[in-house]
Protein 1
Amino acid sequence: MRRLKPRHIQTRLTLWLLASVLVLVALFWLVTARAPVVLTESYVVDRLAHDAEVLILGVDPTTAPPRLDPAYANPIYDRPYSGHYYQLDVGGSTLRSRSLWDFDFQPGQLESLPGTYHTTGPAGQPLLVYADRIQKDDTWIEVHVAEDLSALEDRINTFRWRFAIVTLILLGIMLVAQRLIVRASLRPLDQVRRDCRRLQEGEIDRLDETVPPELRPMVEEINHLQDAMQRRLSRSRKALGNLAHALKTPITLIDQVLQRSRKDLSPETAERLAEGVARMRRITDRELRQARMAGEARGGQRFEVERDLPRLLGMFRHLHPEKTFTHRVDCASGALLRADREDMYELFGNLLDNAAKWAEGRIQVEVSRQDRRWHIAVSDDGPGVPTDSLQELAHRGTRLDESREGHGLGLAIVREIVELYGGSLSFSRSPDLGGLAVEIQLP
């Protein structure tokens, strides 16, 4: 089953806030859009009810036919299609306003009186009708009074359009404001993210714990894990160095006993023992050299090329004063290799150690940045390696020449480090010095 890509917290908050704002605005629009209609119709109904009472007062039901005193009817009811109408049903007779002409209201639209209903007027205009039944002089009079709502609806529609425009503007302002609020609220997360990146690059040892209470448990846990890893790494390095240092004395004693006992051993046995002791001494010397290179640097610290490479070369110049180490760095000042500093110390240390072992007198190191990748090249002026044997160099334990000291692990360790960081390793003959050239590409 395909898993959906998780959304950012900021996007999720924005979508939920947007949905809630839209729902609130929609409800507000419905209430506000309906309110003017209810209020205005209530006002019109009150006025129509007043006109109906006045008309009833002007009806004389005792005459045949019944008649309405014109003094009780507003003159607007006399103008044809004026938008103001009435109809009186008195004892089977009907009295209409002149504005109605021969138009009849439909009394059957109401189940009970008094009440209101909507209908279409004589000129096709929308009407609001108030109807009631009132007894006068033992005669029931049913009255219908109507008013044209066209002008009122036009004003209400104009109000709705203006209100919609203002609402959209306010909605836009609210969306921008809530976006800014979400960003401001999540700013501490951005700071934690930047601190994590700085921690990864070795610029800081711990995350800043001056964060909101919601983030403090996470930051404290990260710091706790970082401290635990630092302690374990430090203990491991010290233990390895101590172990190598502690083995030097027993190895020396074994070597001395072997030298004194050579006459009691067969030449073949003595040679095998001497070779084993020499190999143990080389391994312990290598581990002690790695411990000296690591020093007290904290884990996770990045390798700063312009600062750390000269330090490493200085140590090898001291170990091999008879050989010349040169280097060329082509990158911006303060550039960092996105790799652990100790891994890079081990990578460069093994490359330089191998080059110094085989070089006649010159070792050259080149470091540059090309197409968002780091290019590292270490070459020497030694005898080099035959072309058909180049790919065997990085195999653990492989030694192509038994005449030089070594145990065949250096270049294999280099390959493991390069593969760990997703890089590539290649061997060739140096066009400048003539010896072996090791080239590495790292992201």
Protein 2
Amino acid sequence: MNTMENHKEGRKSGQVTAKHAATAHLKKRPSALLSFTPIALLVVMLVATIRAFGSDSLAGASQVTLIAVSAFCVLIGMDYLNVPWSSFEKAITKNVSSVSSALIILLLIGALGGAWMVSGVVPTLIYYGMHIIHPSVFLASTCLICALVSLMTGSSWTTIATIGIALMGIGRAQGFADGWVAGAIISGAYFGDKISPLSETTTLASGSLGVQLFRHIRYMLLTTVPSITLALIIFAVAGLTIDTTETQELASFMAALDGRFNITPWLLIVPVATGVLIARKTPPIVTIFLSTLLAVACGLIFQREALAEIDPSMFKAAMMSVYGETTLSTSNQMLTELVSTRGMAGMTDTIWLIICAMCFGGTMAASGMVGGITRLFIHMVKGRTSLVASTATTGVMLNVAIADQYLCILLTGNMFRDVYDRENYERRLLSRTTEDAVTVTSVLVPWNTCGMTQSTVLGVATTTYLPYCFFNIISPIMSVVVAAIGYKMSFFK
């Protein structure tokens, strides 16, 4: 009897011990305060890094900072939140794989930028653009041109990497500060990216929430049109008040441009052909690659002198313009700096930074800290206005924490889907708010994939252009304002 009782007690004790052991490995839910700790640490470390290294921070210091904060997340997750390492490993792998195609596009954009510059495509666009666009209307025209191109292509990245680079050159030649020009380019490019039916973000935001695409786009016009209108007004006023380069200096710049490159309308075949490929919905990787090859061919035909300056071998010079750094001497110092290219090699620091940012986003998600941040905002919901404000704030915070706009769009929609359904608000309100907050603000975060890419392509630091991206700044605010007013029109239903 005693033996049986001892056996039962031992088995019961073993079950309790096993239960305690299993419970010990259950994940803990992080508090909102704990969830914000890695982000606060990241911001502090990045500020210190930028102050110490300046523009050289992207060469490795910022990457080390992201990895260090990622390690901090893992430390908290494993020691305090009982999250196993396998969860972190899976999340990081998933995050990095999700941007693999974007990394390839980024490399090709570097090749495109080098080929378009050395072949004379960008110099030709700048030369003709300076004849057509008057400085007083340049900023507003830049925003409008990028908006139309992005609307037709559905891609802010392609718009900025092509026409954006040319407009950047025109703006610098006319004497505008880099921040103003980059802000106008980005404002216009992300307007089109946000409402174009060809845009991946537009399709993702509507499709993931079961909202019909054009119904989603029509509803976004309520916030998007006022936002871009205000941005255009600001750029128009700025263009009339900012002092620009004197006519004599512009003439000197254009003479140097004409003297260095063979400016000919035949080079416009390259952007026209690129536009045709985009209109035919050719995949971005294929479009950028073919456009690069066409530009190289045009360079071999029209810019033989420029290529010879890079290297006596035409083949070697053409290859170097695609993958490496090139410098062409001109009679104008500003033009010499403008036409210098870095090719694919110039994108390696950015790619390294994106991979490190994806590691940080993966550790934040695996540890449950992303959920801790969103739960804080969900608890603040008291009505339509607070619901939209919470959604917008969460979207922006996810852009900061996860650093990839596609993941942020999906997460924001999934987190608030049930809340909107429970409160009897339409899904299109959620899809619109998600785009207002996530799609357009991703480019404002220095370590976000969009922020890093556009900063590299335009050659302007994210913190430099951020204050001038008026459309991107106004959009999430406008989303909350329209929700507070409750404005509706039958056309948008």
Protein 3
Amino acid sequence: MCVSVSENALKKQPAVDRAVKVCKKIVSSFSYSWKKKKALHKAQIELNLPQHNLKTSCPTRWGSMHLMTARLLEQKKAITQVLSDDRASRHLIPKWSDLDVLEAMNKALAPLVEFTDALSGEEYVTISSVKPVLHILHSRVLAEEDDDVELTKVIKSDIISYLDDKFSDPTTEEFLDMASFVDPRFKASYISAHHVPTIQENIKKEMESAALDHTGQTRGSTAAEHQHSSFPSSEAKKPKKSLGSFFKRSEATSSTAPAVSIQQAVEAELSSYLVSPLQDSEENPLDWWRQHHAHFPTLSKVAKKYLCVPATSSPSERVFSSGGNVVTCLRSCLKPEMVNMLVFLSKNLD
């Protein structure tokens, strides 16, 4: 995601656009010529370079432009040698100005690759990490350094502006804050101070709604159990009472504690959550909620609601790819129910 967003921001720079077009022409010339591929392999051996193939950019593949430029910079000596030996292709040799632009791009985009890969996962929680990642990008990754050239600084500034504009929608920002708040690794650490009271009020409303739903379900199940127990089976044996059951009944009848309202229970639960220590950033927040469900029964339901949302569209795109592998030209008559089962098995079986 981060690399894709950054590549869209780079399109504003004419120098970057020109350098990328030069890069695409070079990759295309090697892709359609087996002679150039063979000569490139030979040059890689002579220059002691990694024997890697060139990569092309694809609009629907995240980070492909960065991968293409990084591979060209890695193999620039071998590419220059092959193109120099071919008179018809010498015009494709990248100029030093284009290489400088590609170097500046690579320096700005390379640190974002790991964030993109991490946010594209589907075996762990990702949505709550969006705000922390944006904070890290602003404060460290995209911060200007002393050895940055002017173009690198401009690219970093454009990326930050693009990210700020992309996540400036109040509804989106509120949703990301809510997801970050119910993650025990972050809570309110990456939420703006003036937004924290609003987020807490929204969390309370969600908790009260979840508590009311739970109360209604409990009353319904209790009434059903009472109705069922009012017609005991004549053959059912009467259970033998234990010694502890007498004390339990005595406590229930003698209890004079006032009933706690839903609002008070929500306040107490939220306060207890806020004072609990932060979870280690490497741990799975879902495991934490599984272990502390008894302590935060209402808040855990709100957490499940938000933490199940993926941060990117990568998981759904992978499902579409699995569906394309299942429904082929030779299996085009499969019924939808069968396709659903086959896709489910392909995504859930090792």
Protein 4
Amino acid sequence: MSALNVNDISYEEKQLFVPSLNEVKTVLESALLNNFEDVTVEVVECPNLSKSPYDLVDCGLGGSPLLLEVGGPPFLLPLVQRSKVYDLKSLIRKCYPAANSSILAIGAGAGPFPIRGTNCEGIYNMKVAANGDVTNSSYTAKVHGPNEECVLEKVPPTETRSALLLNLFLSQGLPGKVLKVVCRKRKGNENFVECMRLGLAKNYGEKCVGMGGIFLIKKGHVHQHVMRDFSKTPIHTDEDVNNWLKFYNMPAQLNAVGTLVTHENDLDLRLQHFHSFSSSNWGGHYHYDTTPDVVEYEGYFNIAEKIVRMDKPTVTHKVGRD
């Protein structure tokens, strides 16, 4: 199945409020201490994220960072719109029309169902060079077989499609300062991402702040879903969604990539979206940890300068956005 022409889909962009890393450090530390026993937030030189245990395709999160959201749950629910297939390479280069550099794209979305023959999660980890060459270590996760096992698979290196809905953090993949966030022993009810997002939203109010990056679940287990194949009956409520999804209790280590933003900014945005991959057969959509006494998170994030919204649904709803 061919992808939509990037010039035929809608495109909007808005500047985000960009506080300093040091200011955000203080905000996140305060919020996370309400939810975790042990919290460290630092502004550090980004480690080489292309090395183990991070395994991204470029070394850093710096260089004109932005958030990209494409499509959305209305293209999946109540029934799938199979025509909504996108070429990531084209989307990414459109966000940086004048850039003479590689662009790193990491994040969460629906996977390229044509190559799997079924609906699947997409865990995106890709670099597009200025000359168009692609370095691709993305994954899909699908529900497979009569026992509904989770199956995590690398996508072919030349496969650059995604489908339906997508949230990416884009940058030039450069080294530089980032936020390092380490949390252990959850004592509150908010998940790791939600706690950071709500803390930022409370502090900055109407100013829209966005971040993206990678976090590791280093110890413990997490509640994650993988989408089953496309539903043949309409899905209208979040209860319907939860009955359709397949949930798993997945063990560490998991590497989660994605984005968060403090509010919709009149763009019908998904506020948080992270998908994980691993060196085992586990991967999917992060919800929350299930072992609060032992869980350990280690994350690296950068603040986005703007948000790009492509192919925003003209008919929308709020179902399926957890």
